[in-house]
């Protein structure tokens, strides 16, 4: 049986030099931005605000609601359920469809105040091995309590959506141990509705529960 | 001297461990920082804090300063003003002199693996890239949101020859042919301005200035400058005070380049003379403990700027767990997510309304402050800045969106 080796990741933020003043400009750039930019703007809040209630879901929704003051479009973008997507391509299509249907129905053009433009950015991710590994569920729960939140972030979010592993790394490993129920339970957790420390807490509780089975 | 381990109680062991892991990837590499001044100014302050920490992590980082004559610095001052949107005229002889000084300096440096050039003054050293270093990064520390087109076009020819450019805020990014990296500035939680203070010290500072800590205190720490809107702050305070008891503290340095500065200062003083609950404090440069105490002892902190570079005073206030109301300008929206980690406003009336709300709803204000502090812990402390610099250096040796190290 292969041990689970915990990696961690560190992100570099790239500036793309592209900005939007209106919903139409936002849509044009959502269509053309690299995948790493769509990923950045739909996951930045999770990464930067992991102590908060997980309310702010993505930069697009936040900007449309708080800067353009359009709560209707903001809520539609807010409600895009990222956990359902298995690729950035699908996520981009959904965001574009919402923006397109809004623009087709709304002839008014709201322009943001100077200085409050939407700036497109992107993530470059560097993955590093940590000194933590686990050979069984007991060791796994212990290590999960010690690794940084960036490690949890990497194995849960990056693994599924950017590395296209179909499911998060933890569930895959549980499955390889024959712990199918634990794999399914951890796969079903919606990481987007947790803070990262909340997610750590719930995962440890799940592992402990199934370890005693 | 501050040790890297001293940050562990603040940011956790895992964060410092990650710095060490990254630093290991730079073993054997030499990094040369080059700027135009050894003392004074933000760049020198950052480098003097950063280099000892890099050294403790085992990263060989040096720091050199270019030498120029008075004429050179007069020209680069014009560059600086022009890049900030002040109309300036630079003639061909001045551009030539700028290049001459850069070319002279280019002959003075030993070869390094990474050359890290700060701000426009040494930008043209890149002309000698093969002789000075292998990988080149240009770090812009100034507000680049509306650069003078002629100066920008002159500088761009050099910047495009670097491997990467670094800006402090998204609004400063430009259309360039090279990758642009965002590295926000940071505060040092162990400095006098930000370290923990005991209640006795805070009480002593408040009583020295005659401010009553048993009543709400609303404070803005900043220069007395039109762009920090001290008169707008006083108006907002007056509107809020119609319903809620409070005192107002305006504290900061008096020196300013703003030609309207003296007039604004007179008006601020006149307003303060009319109201014993307004405290205008002109603090000398070495007042870090006083500023720290004033922030820690306040009920609400304001930073009602009309224009801002990055606005690090906001992070300083948030780090003290204070509910903060700030203008939605410059780098401030990076530091405050509205109603999550603080309040962003765009008017005097809006500021007044939020002052009332936060003074009257201490539990909500406390939660904003706690969230703000955690946001700063994760994003605007010295350790994050170190991580970004290490990543920047490591990134020069790799390609791709996801890199396994």
What is the CATH third-level topology name of the largest domain in chain B? Rossmann fold
Sheet with the most strands of chain B? 6 strands, parallel
What is the C-alpha radius of gyration of chain A, as a whole number of Å? 19 Å
Distance between the termini of chain A: 19 Å
Can you write the helix and strand succession of chain B as a string?
A: HHEHEHHEHEHEEHEHEHEHEHEHEHHHE
End-to-end separation of chain B in angstroms reads 31 Å
Number of helical stretches of at least 4 residues of chain B: 16
Topology, pairings included?
The complex is a heterodimer of chains A (213) and B (405).
Chain A: E1 4-20, H1 23-32, H2 35-48, H3 59-66, H4 71-78, H5 88-105, E2 118-134, H6 137-144, H7 149-162, H8 169-176, H9 180-188, H10 196-211
Antiparallel strand pairs in A: 1-2
Chain B: H1 8-11, H2 13-24, E1 30-35, H3 41-56, E2 60-65, H4 70-83, H5 92-106, E3 112-118, H6 129-132, E4 133-139, H7 149-159, E5 164-167, E6 180-182, H8 199-208, E7 217-221, H9 230-241, E8 247-252, H10 261-274, E9 278-282, H11 288-297, E10 300-303, H12 312-319, E11 324-327, H13 332-335, E12 343-345, H14 348-360, H15 362-379, H16 382-395, E13 402-404
Parallel strand pairs in B: 1-2, 1-3, 3-4, 4-5, 5-6, 7-8, 7-10, 8-9, 10-11, 11-12
Helix pairs in contact in B: 2-16, 4-5, 8-11, 9-14, 12-15
